[in-house]
Amino acid sequence: EVQLLESGGGLVQPGGSQRLSCAASGFTFSSYAMTWVRQPPGKGLEWVAVTGASGYTKYYSDSVRGRFTISRDNSKSTLYLEMNSLRVEDTAVYYCAKDVAGIFNGMDVWGQGTTVTVSS
Amino acid sequence: QSALTQPPSVSRSPGQSVTISCTGTSSDIGGFNRVSWYQQAPGTVPKLIIYEVSNRPSGVPDRFSGSKSGNTASLTISGLQAGDEADYYCSSYTSSSTVVFGGGTKLTVL
Questions:
Q1: What digits encode the pLDDT tens for the residues B45-82?
Q2: What are phi and psi of A63, to 5 degrees?
Q3: Concatenated DSSP letters for A38-104?
Q4: Cβ of A57 under 8 Å from any chain B Cβ?
Q5: How, if at all, do strands A10-12 and A114-118 pair?
Q6: A63, A47 in Cβ contact below 8 A?
Q7: What is the dihedral of CA A66, A28, A3, A77, to 10 degrees?
Q8: Is pLDDT of A21 > 90?
Q9: Which residues does B contribute to its contact with A (CB < 8 Å)?
């Protein structure tokens, strides 16, 4: 069964840091681009970042560029999101997702999400 | 990058069809065939229902179809069922090498 399992969410103070992980199983992780998408409470979806299959290609939304870093360890089938200088507006459910093919073409497998709350 | 524009809500009766629009610009929808649609029922994870404008992943019924004209993409659902009640989001690749989502459309099947 194709599965993504996020972890690492929690309560963090403004200006703090948090590292999210996403463990993949059931597919050849190293063959697919992987994406982080977030959803603030009661609001819509917001694209955060994507990394290509090899991990060399990375792109970010304007709202997180310079503060967040996406990375992957293909030997561990795990995706990461390092979040620094966190702001209240970063509060959201963070989903990792597998790209359907190539990159930027849509995400066909989603994790259950992990909640990050930025508050003092 | 501004969000794509979707109607906040639509409602139809079972058995009817509905078309949800998603309007962007020549820098996103109009410039690329990389439009996706997602269905998110209450309390659930988003589900991909259309990718690359009109392609359906395996397992998605052919009642769901996608199209694009200029800077506007559309999702059509025919033969509406109660189980189709959900929030629907469009997304598109942009010329800035990012992805932008629409604000979402709440579909109510009365």
A1: 999 999 999 999 999 999 999 999 999 999 999 999 99
A2: -70, -15
A3: EE-TTS--EEEEEE-TTS--EEE-TTTBTTEEEEEETTTTEEEEEE-S--GGG-EEEEEEEESSSSS
A4: no
A5: parallel
A6: no
A7: -50
A8: yes
A9: 1, 3, 34, 36, 38, 40, 45-48, 50-52, 57, 87, 89, 91, 93, 97-104
